Structure formats: C-alpha cells, structure tokens
Amino acid sequence: MSLIIKTKKLTKIFSNGEQTLVALKGIDLEIEKGEVIALTGASGSGKTTLMYMLGCLDSPSSGEFFLNGQEVSSFSPRKLAEVRNQSIGFVFQNFHLLNDLNAIENVVLPQLYGGIAEKTARIKAHNLLEAVGLEHRLHHYPNQLSGGQRQRMATARALAMDPFLLLADEPTGNLDSENADRIIDLFLDINQQKKTTIILVTHEKEIAKRAHRCITINDGQVA
User: Fold this and answer.
1) Less Cβ crowding at N or C end of the chain, within 10 Å?
2) How far is C-alpha 48 from the chain's CA centre?
3) CATH fold label, 34-61+74-222
C-alpha cells in the first residue's frame, strides 16, 4: 500500500504576542491509502488542529507534511486552495451547507470552482445525491431537510471532486444514534467502493471502534 499522509515532527504554535500555545508537539504520522482512521482525544488535545493541518486548511509552524507524496507544508495559500478543491473532501459537524442553494446546487458548486462544465457537474451531483439516498430531495434546501439528510447532502458535496482523502470533523455530533450509524455506514461504503482514505475526528467510542485504526492525540502528541 502507498502512503497518503506522512508527517515528520509536525508542530503548530499559536501566539498573540503575549501568550504562546503549542498545539501540536512534533507529530509523526503515517496513513496508508484506503485506511479509515478515527482521530480521538479530549477537547483541547490538538486533534482538530491536526485535522486542519492534514486538510491543508492551515500550515504548520515547523516540520514536514507529505500528502500523496508531495511536501505541502510550504505551499502558498493559492496552491493549498487548489489541493483542497482537487484532492480533499470535508464533512463538518454543522454541515456548512449554503442555505440559499438546493441540494443539487450545493453539490454542483465545488465542481464549478474546479473547472467542470455545469451540465457535467449537474449530472454528477444527481448521481452522488442518489448514491447517498437523497434522490427524492434534489431540489430541497438544507432547512427543509433533517439533520441526517443534511449530513448526507454534505457528504455528497464532499465527494463532488472525487477526493482521495475525506476528512470528517465530528460528523455525527449533531445526530441521533440511528442517523449517526447511517452516516458511518455511508462512509464505510464509500471507503469500500472508492478506496477513499477517511479520517474521522470523533469523541464517540462506538464510532471510533468502526474505523480500521484509532489514533489518539493527547496534549498535542500521539498518545
């Protein structure tokens, strides 16, 4: 198997001039293509900061980060934005859907940013929403859907550019247990069908148990 993620002594320091917080303290990680990883740890442990690093949403203070063989920690903001659009899908606890766009339009939008023709993007959006069980909700807006349906819409949007890496930050945090199980079932199906590498940030032990491997962050370090 090939490595999707490799970090060497990844460090993140936040400073406001008066106080300094070392959020990540020399993280060494290796994650292989096709793994489903549960990233766990107490609140404030550094797991969300690490997810932001792995998702190219922020840059480390020091250390190296290889994504699919590329050392990306020194990329410009523009290049990082390109990597995020083309290679990484994000699913957040609070969905982050655009409320003035319907389901199809929410899934079309990242494809338009990626340079895909609208007709092609709409066909793909339709297929993705059907795959996540929302074929009867294509023209519904987020506020017309349940929490579980919104999370499935967010998952369809995250898959719009065929990312090789899917990052989910507490994706079941706002869902009841039945819908939480459905979302994790969906992630595992995606992993099986597409071999997408998935990293789930979660504090829920039952969710973490379903991953292939669990990585626990404690006080900015791998426990």
Assistant:
1) N
2) 11
3) Rossmann fold (3.40.50)
